[in-house]
Amino acid sequence: MNEICLREMCSYISEETENLFLEYTARFIRQTTRRQYAGLLALFCRETKCDFMEITPEKTDRFFRNHTKSSTIKTLQWQIAALRGFARFIDEKQAAAQEEEQDQNQKQDQEKSEAQEEQEVEGAAGADRVSAKAQFQDVPAQEAKDAQGSETTANPEGHFESAFPKMQFEWSLQPIAPIPKLEHVDQVLTYFYERDDLTMFVAISTILRCGLTTRELCGLNVGHIFMDADGKKGMIIPDTHRRERKIKIPDDLFDLIVRLIPAQAEKDFPVFRLRRFEKRLSARMLEHYIKDACEALEIPPFTMTQLRNLAVASMVQGGAPAQAVSDYLGTDILWITRYDVAVPELKDSAVDYHHIYIKKI
Fold it and tell me: Stretch 212-232: mean pLDDT, rounded?
């Protein structure tokens, strides 16, 4: 494998950065990928006029603002993801080195303490006093050493990744797959309604109104649905990558969800289940039923992703800010969880801008 010489590509790049980069890109199978990453890093350091180890959020922001007009959103998103990945690698490597150093220091302290204990047992009283004196003299020396180590550490854990904050273009809505016609979606809803398939009717309505992913929809339990102190309804969507988010449930949809759930349902009871088999609705079965309905109606088939795109497009068309859409995508009912405070996420929500509503059935 021909090694890439980053310092020949950009004079700002240090030997330390180059070595870290070679270690980071060794995981890539294709040499082409390594060269793409090298070209990006050289461009980034050249335009920010600093080594990668000296990068700041301000310099990162300036770099991407300069490229916003000349690059596509897709290119910008790849660039920020690539740079952030390298930054995360450096943070993890530094954290591991710091942890190893701490372990070594603890081991040395323990060995020293054991040696002193042996001296105290074997030595005379005078030797004990010398040992004690040496021990107390070592305490400030060790503290000074620790303080010096903390000052000379290049960056605390998480420093480099924090130099690449979330950019505005990462929230931008991208060109999406063909959106199904609303009349076709209405035909499919009617198809399941006439067959008394309330589960599929409400499942499609939920994606259409709330823009959930198939995984989020199928994983929804009774315990995820709640009502706040103002009587607004919402659902908690667990997220494996970030913290869980709370989203608002429109009243027209909530009335339908209520009909799916038994009054005494437990918190882990699935909201969407196949009544025929009494088990949780899966993403595969959901797509299968939609496809069968479209074929029976002789209309172009659509996926749940396309249906979700329709929901997002409706929110945007209704005037919802892009950031609000992004954050959203964060009676006396016995089973519903009740909050004793008002939940901010349920006040002014992207779903309020929706111009699609589900008629009562």
Answer: 87
Q: Which residues contact 280 (CB under 8 A, 6 or more apart)?
A: 218, 270, 272, 273, 274
The DSSP line for 188-225 is HHHHHHHTT-HHHHHHHHHHHHH---HHHHHT-BGGGE
Angle (CA) 226 229 231, round 5°: 65
103-162 tens-digit pLDDT: 788 888 787 777 777 776 666 555 454 444 444 344 344 433 443 443 333 444 446 677
Cβ contact 336:254 at 8 Å? no
CA 60 to chain centre: 20
Chain segment 268-289, per-residue pLDDT in tens: 888 888 766 678 888 889 999 9
Say how far apart CA 39 and CA 3 lie, in whole Å. 13
| Burial status of residue 37 (CB atoms within 10 A of its CB: 0-12, 13-18, 19 or more) | buried
Residues 340/231, Cβ–Cβ less than 8 Å: no
∠ at Cα 201 (197, 205), nearest 5°? 170
What is the reported pLDDT for 120? 65
Task: Kindly state the DSSP code that residue 177 receives in the 8-state scheme.
Answer: S
